[in-house]
Amino acid sequence: MKRFIKEFDGVNEIVYASDIENHELLYLNKAGLEAFGYDQVEQIVGEKCYEVLRGQNYPCDFCTNGRLCRDKYVEWEHENPITGRKYRLKDKLIPWDGRDVRLEIADDITELRIQSMKTGMEKHLESEKIVMECIKMMYSSVETDVAINNTLESLGKYLAGERTYVFDVRGKFMYNTYEWCAEGVSREIDSLQQVPVTTIKRWMPYFIQNHCVIIEDLEQIKETDPEEYAVLKPQNITSLITVPMIKNEALVGYFGVDNPRIGNLYEISDILKMLAYFFQSLLERKKREDYLQKIGFTDAMTGALNRNAYIKDTMSDSNWGLGTAGGFFIDINGLKKTNDTYGHEAGDKLILQIYHIICSVAGEYPVYRLGGDEFVVLCKNISKENLDELETLLREELGGKNGCSAAIGVSFLENPKDLGALMEEADKKMYQDKEQFYKNSKQNN
Length: 445
Prior knowledge:
By secondary structure, the protein is of the alpha+beta class. Helix content is 41%, strand content 23%.
């Protein structure tokens, strides 16, 4: 075979042979040596094909080794980053010293590409158009969530993709935070929460170097990366492009598109790369907004929602559609005495203890701290039976057990028009309950 392959030195195409197991080059013809700046074939023998032919220190993510056979060529096109030329490639397996190795023949089609420059320029203008449209969508609303969703929709429709999305990477896990789906495509966002980062371990070297990850045909990784295939296949993914978002040399997230149906995937990746900075800016803005909202609507000591959040939630326009509403007003009994007798540290512990009890009973319903010893639980669209069950549990847990005692007032309305009135009623009942508590305490004393 060595004698036979020497005959390739007289052809204009670039021809090389490499080991399919360790990617070491075995041969590069004269046209290839000239194209990549070498004088003798001995200079490249034993070197990694991806180092010599692409100038990178890791295997190509699009390597066709897993698809090769002896019977026919695998044909594809690619632009080489070292020569800057476009090639039509033909790959197959050939025998070499008792084993199969990769043979690739690269035909330079750059001139054909130049001839189609007009079409290319039109595509470039179209790319600029979609980039500008997406940037416009990014600033289409003062609400960051709306702006991100608008952008994903524009991007998905332009690329004729089935799904566009954003993932947030937090430590060892990643979370699908935004998603747009084409009509008829099922949502995946709910099932893609707290996904181990190890799921995309193959992608990480590319992401860290700020490269896109492109899968042109999912079936190509079925054998080489079965774990990744097992995650993507149930989502009906056949192809995808994902773009990293890097901050301080660390991966903070990525966005991408599943099953895009227009254009060359590598050309599409250029569009997405241009949008990465703007996407990251939007997400950073969202994080700042969330932080400001958290400190503006959260009680610093307990972590409960505060009075600002209570006012916002009770005055929200969304309350007009409620079928029912219930509310609890809860006031800690004996907090002043605890502070006076044991100190404010003991009082703070009592507040926290009672807050955690209320949360454990309230479940999904929001808990607000309105003052030093006052808590409110707001239960929208709750049945009277469920409200009664919550009241029974609260009175049991806050009836003096483990030193935790609180006065409780509860109210319920069907088709409520004013949640403020609902809670005023609960407040009145709480004061009646507190008067009875101190009356009983006095009699017991």
